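Sample pair:
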Amino acid sequence: EGSSERRAPRTIKVEQYKECASLIGMHLNKCHEAGQESVKWDDVAMWYLEQKEDELITEEDVEDTNELVNGVINKMMAEGGTLMFMGLPEKGQKKEERMIALHPSVDPRTLYASY
């Protein structure tokens, strides 16, 4: 019965955000260099979870990390133009089902390197 309880939004440390955003940027850049113009949002989140697999002990760890990566992607989409959606959304399509890519003006080699 308690599983429907909604947790308060998670606050993440700046270092966590930068590390996650940097890994996402490097991953999307590698995909682009391999000829893949864009990647589905959910696939990027799943890739990140796989990278952190050794650190995820409990189901709560997995949920927290999934919440983290989706929050970081959302922020990278909303602020600074780091990520962008590719193509138009299909009717009823959730944002996590859409294709995303690094914005062309972003240099992935310097993404958060100045911090």
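The CA atoms of residues 55 and 61 lie 8 Å apart.
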